[in-house]
UniProtKB/TrEMBL annotation:
Classification via Pfam families: Flagellin_C (PF00700), Flagellin_N (PF00669)
Listed SUPFAM superfamilies: Phase 1 flagellin (SSF64518)
InterPro entries: Flagell_FlgL (IPR013384), Flagellin (IPR001492), Flagellin_C (IPR046358), Flagellin_N (IPR001029)
Domain Flagellin C-terminal: 265-348
Family: Belongs to the bacterial flagellin family.
Compartmental location: Bacterial flagellum
Descriptive protein name: Flagellar hook-associated protein 3 FlgL
Annotated Flagellin N-terminal domain residues: 5-140
Keywords on record: Bacterial flagellum, Cell projection, Cilium, Flagellum
Amino acid sequence: MRVTQSMIANQTLRHIQSNYNNISKYQNQLNTGKKFSRASEDPLSATSGMHYRTQVREIEQFQRNLSSAHTWMETSDQALYDVNTSLQRMRELTSQAANDTYDSEQRKAAAEEIGQLIDHIKDLGNTKVNNKYIFNGTDTENQPIDKSKFDITVEDPNAPPDGTMLFYEGVLYEFTDGSYQEHGIDPEDEGRTPGEIDVNKAVFFESGAISINEDDVELQMMKGVNMPINANGADIFGYEGFGELILLERSMKSADSGTEIGDHLDVLDQQLDRVLSAEANIGARQNRIMMTENRMDQQLITATRIMSDNEDVDFAEAIIQLVSHESILNASLSAGARIMQPSLIDFLR
């Protein structure tokens, strides 16, 4: 086979161009820190990289969800703790006032403090996080408690405005269509009726005084795992609970003996039990969120490492390859210069 000068020249130029391409490749890797800058350079790694990036972004979103859940539940826990503290103080005052050594003035002073504590609990029922009401289920835009509609005075207790709520003798009634119906009972069923109402033992609420949505507010903690992050406000801030507290305040102001006041201790204990149960539920979910958060942190580290192994360049190796191909290029240029000696024609051009 005859080897011509042009064949040698073309082959030399191809090798030199190949060396330039390799140098450019490793320079790009050092400049960008990535093994490839276009998917066509390594389709398999590029496809895997898209999957790894999606996984990392998904974990980061779960971590943001967990952070939101922490904020929501910590605020709920603090609000419930404050409710608990308020009820404990009421119980302490009730226990003291039930002692017949207390006179009417001392009981009235205790009643004033209890009234303030009731208002404080109402405010806690309207606690907000990020401008959202945390005790109103999924209806986070509307406040669950309207303090102005509590303990209202009605002209005729047997015929108040429609929608009026009545707490009487431990039972909650709603006045609709001209009569009282036991609240929470199917209208077709025969519930209890209040009978003749003693206004001194009755607590009236205007329609809409308490409107609590009981649906769970859920956040996705990880793929396929949702968790409610709210406490059910109806268990803590219901009509019955406030009705009992308002009657306690009245007893403090009007009772002639401590026995009548002491009867409210059992009711306070029941309310404290409900609050403690809600606190325990929130605490259990907080522990689960902390464990999930630790798991997400580990998954993020693993996913980031795998993504880095797939697309991040090994700088030491890239520098070695760059220097090596620069040496090869210099050798190719030197060899090509010896093979393709300039002729008279080259100078005439």
